[in-house]
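Hi, can you check this record?
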Amino acid sequence: MPKADPYDVLGVPRDASADEIKSAYRRLARRYHPDVNPNDHEAEDKFKEIGEAYGILSDPEKRQRFDQYGLTEDVPQDPFFAGGGGGIGDLFEMFFGSSANSRHRGGARNGDDLRADITLNLGEVLTGVHRDIEVDRLAECGSCNGSGVEGGGKPEVCPTCKGQGQVSTIRQTILGTVRTSIPCSNCRGTGSIITNPCKTCRGRGLVTEHARVAISIPAGVESGVTLHVAGQGNDGLAGGRPGDLYVVIEVAPDQRFQRQGTTLFTHVDLTFAQAALGDTMSLEGLDETVSIEIPAGIQPGERLNAKGAGLPPLHGGRRGDLVIAVNVKIPKKVNEAQVKLIRELAEVSGEQIPSGGGNSGILGGFFKRKK
């Protein structure tokens, strides 16, 4: 049951026509569909609520019962799979365009939506980017102007359904007379038939074209963000509106940085001397060289912050930070002079003098024999 008044959920007045209700439903369902909003539970709940509201208002009997009594008890929880008004036919209409319900009287049919995937690097995420993407879409046939009839004529009215696109059957049940409507098998729900199909499009009214679509990707996007480009899907037929293009963003991994939201993480290797005495060093950031101050006595695993050297948030604002983890490199090999100095350091520091000689060869053996 919808949590709110179904008219409020769909944003339509109480005297809205069936077409206005269906149009509002399509618009909202496209916006909140789980495929467009992956891992967004609020959008998923909204999508279900929209479907429930449409399940009431698209059925004349349920709508009348709600208008008179506010009753929705027998409305299916998820009308997309209920088989009634606002059911699976509308779902296919929205995303595949293959249902007879997507064809209106006179043969009008809305175009299908399309999806494209695009990969960005972190530099493009930082600045935002304009891209031209290529898509294969169905466009109106120029030879028949989308009618499907050779020479651009009009299709004939289907004699079976008289142009309605549906045929009705009446049967008696224990509950009384039940009228059901199914798509017309003769015209496949279009309400019209073509006896002289266009040679270019073979009567489809559409031809495949390779299109280039310019899109603007804002800074700060993350993998999974989906951009909506209205009207760049497949063309509609007989006055139906074109579908939309949904562009799904993927951000490629970067060997230099790990990303968490607006924060970037990297690491730097320090020598023992740098860690002990402190230093100033330069690090190649995402877009410019970052100067970092290393305090004396820094320990392995400690982190330094470069303010504002990360990524911007999606809707604008201050850039995040670049977080730098410190690693102190221990040399795998030391020479005789280094061994001597390391032992002297241990001695003046009051530490136990190491018994090993490292990989210093003769000097290491000398210290062992002397000891």
DSSP finds nine helices and 15 strands in the chain.
